[in-house]
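Researcher: Please generate the 3D structure of the following complex. Treat every line as part of one assembly.
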Amino acid sequence: MGMNMKTKLRNYHAVCWDEPIIYELDRNGERAIIVPEVDKKIIESVGDGISSIPKSMRRKNLPQLPALSQPQVLRHYLHLSQENLGVDLNIDIGQGTCTMKYSPKINEQFANSEKITEMHPYQDESTSQGLLEIMYKTEQLFKEISGLDRFSLHPGGGAHGIYTISSIIQAYHKSRGEEGKRNEIITTIFSHPADAAAPRVKGYKIIIIYPDENGCPDIEALKKVVSEHTAALLITNPEDTGIYNSKIAEFTKIVHNFGGLCGYDQANANGLLGITRAKEANFDLSFFNLHKTFSSPHGCGGPGSGIVGVTNKLAKFLPVPVVSYDKGNNKYFLDYNSSDSIGKVKDFYGVIPVILKAYAWTMSLGAEGLREVSNVAVLNNNYTMKKILELRGVSMAFPEHKHRIEQVRYSWEKLAKETGINTENIQRRIFDFGTHYWTSHEPWLIPDPFTIEPSESYSKDDIDEFIAILGQIVKEAYEDPKKLKNAPYKSSVHHIDHDVFDDPSKWAITWRAYKKKYNGYFQPK
Amino acid sequence: MNLKKTVYPYIPNSEPQVQKEMLKEIGANSINELFSDIPEKLLLHKKMNLPKPFLSEYELKRHIESILSKNLTCKENISFLGAGCWQHYVPAVVDEVIHRSEFLTAYAGEPYEDHGRFQAGFEYASMMGDMLEMNVVSIPTYDWSQAASTSLRMSYRITGRDEVIVSKTINPNRLLVIKNYCNPNVNVVMLDFDPNSGLVDMNDLEKKISNKTAGVYVENPSYLGSIESNGAKLSEIIHKAGALFLVGVDPSSLGVLTPPINYGADIVCGDLQPLGIHMNYGGGVAGFIATRDEKEFVSEYPSRLFGIAPTENSEWGFGDVMWERTSFANRESSKEFVGTAAALWGIAAGVYLAVMGPEGMQELGKGIIQRSLYAQKEIAKIKGVKVPVLQSSNYCEFVVDFNNSGKTIKEINKTLLKKGIFGGKDLSKDFPQFGQSALYCVTEIHSKEDIDRLVFALKEVF
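Model: Done. Output below.
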C-alpha cells in the first residue's frame, strides 16, 4: 500500500547503499576514459614532451588516484546522488532562509546548450553578442525589480554580494576623503551572518543591533550607535524571523543623516517582488540571490550568484566590466570605462549559467508573475504558520506580528520543557519521513528554533503533508520521547560521531589523511 | 480583455480556488491583508515595468534560443584562448552526474539526508589531495582569484605580518581581485620577473622580502605559461625570512608537474575549471585551497571542510570540520566569510579525476606539452613571428611575439576570426613590455590538423 492519504504519512526509507569510499573501489589498471592520442608526427617532431620540463619540476610518481572503469565510476556517483535529497525530490520547505523552489528544467536545457557552455570569456565581442545581450537584459530587469540604477553581475553568491557591497562602501567614503573616519558597519543580529562577517574583511568594526520587544531591529539602539563613524547600515528586511521592519525608511533616513550609506541584503526578497523595493526605502545598494529567489538551483552550495545593484552616485565604483549597449551600432559590449572602479571581485564577468537561468525564469513570469510568486509565497507561509501554531508545544518568536512575509522562525521551547526533546532531536527524526528542516543561524536567540519557508513552489497538499509529519513527531515527543532521541532510523546513515571533527589528531579531511591516522575502520594508528 | 487569472505552471497555489480556501483557513480576506506590516508609502503602487513574459515554455524556448543563436562558440571555431579559462574535453559521465536532480537541487541539508553530497565533497577533496599530495583541501570557493586572495589572508593571520609579495607574472585580473581583497589590512608588494625567462627575479625577491613579509605568491605555470624551475630556491629564501610560500597551480598540469608541496609550498590554490567544467564564458570557474594537515593552517580556512567520521553502525559518516571557524557559526569573529560558492563544480572535478585516473592525468599533461611544443615549433617557422619569447619550458600556454609583423594583435585576430579561428589573448595592454604579443593556449582538444590550420592561417595574415 502507498502513502496513507488520511494521515498523510509515508512509510519512507532513505536510499542506503552503504557505498564504499571511491578509493576502496580502486582496480589498478582499469580505465574510465581514453585521452585523445597525440599524432605520431607531433611525437616525431617534439619527442615525449616530459623531457622539456626541468627535472626538479617533473612529477616522480603517478598521482594516487583510484582507477576504475566507466560503469563503475558512474554507478558509484549515482549511488551517492541517490543518498541525497534535493528540491526535486522532497517537500523542501524546512530549509528556511534558503528559498528552496522549483528550478524549471527548460532553463537547465538553456544553460547546457553549447551556445553557452563552449564560450570563452575572451572571444571577440562580435561572437558573444547573445550572451552579452542576456547579461544586459538581465540588468535591465533587475533595475526595475529593485528601483536601483546599475548592477554588477559578478558576485558568485550572497556572501560575495555583501563583500562587494562592503568594497563599494569603502571606495565611496575614500573618494570623499573619509575612509579612515568611517570605520563602522551597523547590522542586525537577525540579518545573515555574512552581513557581519564580510565587512570585517574590509577592516570594519561591526556593530550589532538587537530586536526590540516587537521583534524589529531596535530603532533606539540604532540612534545610539549611529555617528560620523558610520560607513553603512547592512540589513535584511524581512529578517530571518519573517517580520517586515515597518520602520525601515526611518532607519535609512537616520543613517543617511549621518552621512552613512544603506545596503539592503535582499536574500529574503521572495515575498516582496513587485510589492516593495530597495528604492522606495531609500537604499543605496542591494543584492539578490539568483540561486534562491530567481530559481537557479542550489547545486549542493553553488554555483550561485549574488548580483549587486547601486544608485547612480555609486555606479562608478562597480567592478569592471559592466555590460553596456551601443545603440548606434546595435552592439552589446564589455564596458571597462570606469576610473573609480573597485577593480574586480571575481574572475571574468559573473556566473553566466546562473544568470541565464534567472533571466529565463523572470521572462517566463513577467511583472504579474513575479507578483504572483510573492503573493503565493506569503500566502503559503501564513497558511503554514497557522497550521504549525496549532501543534502542541510550538510557538513563534514575537507573536504580536499577526502576519509574516515569506518565512517564520518558530520555537520548540515549550515542547522541550515538557518532553526533554529539543529541536535537534526533531531535526534528526524528520529525516525518517523523507524531508528535512533547518534550525537557525547562530546565535540562537530563540530557544530550540526552526525556520520554515514554504516558497511558491509547494501546493497546499505539500504543506499539509509537511505539517502532518511535524504533528506525528510532536505526538511521539509526548508519548515516546526515547524513540526520538535515537533517530534517525531510516536515513542513509546512523548516528554520526561528531567528536572527531574538532580534534586535530582525529579529523580527516581527505582519504590520504584518514589512511595516515587510522587503520581499518577508525582504529587509531 | 481576458479577465481569467493566470495559473502558473511553477506555482501550484496560483489557482484561485485553493487561494480562497487557504485565506479562509488563515482568517484573512485577501492576500494584500498579509502585507499589513509594510507601510503604505513603501508599497509599489504600480505594476513593474517589465517586458511581456513568455508564458508558454515553447515561446520562452524560442526567445532564449534566438538570442543564444547569435553566439559563435569554440566548437564551431578553433580557439587558442586560455588566460584563466581553458577549453578541455569534458567527459560525458561528468555532465551526467552533475545534472542529476539530487545533486543539482540539493543545498545545505544535514549529513543524514544529504549523505551523498558530503561523501562526494569528501572524495573530491581527497582526489585533489592526491593530485597535490596535501592532506587538507577545501570545499570550492568562488574561483582561483578568491582562493589566492584567501591564501594570502591566511598567511597574514598565520604569521601576524601584514605585507605580501605577489609575482608580476600572475593573471593580471587576479591581481585586481587580490588587491581589493587585501585592502586595507594587507599591503601588496609586486615581485619582478626576469624578462628573458619569465621566471621570478630572485634578486628582486631577496630585495623585497623582509620580516614584514607574511607570504609570497607565485603561479606555476605562470600566467604566461612558464614553468618555474627555481621552486626549491624560492622556498629557501621565503622560509628563511619566516614567510609562507603560496603557489597557484593549474591542476591539469599535475599529472606531469610535481606538486608544489615538493618544492616547499605551504598553501596551494588554483582553479577546478580545467577538471571537467565547461568554460561557460568564464562562469564555470571554482577555486580550491590546500594545505598540510596542521591545526594552525586548518583553523584559518574560511571555507567548509568535510571530514570523515564513524557512525554507530560502522558506516562512513561525514560532517563539518572545525565549524566554529566559519561565519555561519561565528559571524564577525569568523575567518573571513563563507556562503554559497561553487560546490557542484567540486563534485564535477571529483568525477573528472575519478574518470581520468592516475594514468589519464599523466597522459593529459604529457599530450598538452607535446601539442604545445609542436605549435610553438610550427609557428616559429612563420616569418616575422617570434616564439618562444620566454627562454623557459612551458605548459599549455606560450607567448607569441608579432612585433615584426607590422600588425597589431587586434588586426591579426580579426583576420583569424574570418577564418574560423579565435587567436590568442592580446597581451599588449597587460604586458606592454612584450609589445604586440599574444598568449596562445593549446590543450588536448587540439589535433595536429587544428594546429596546422592555425599556422596556415597565420601565414596568410602576413
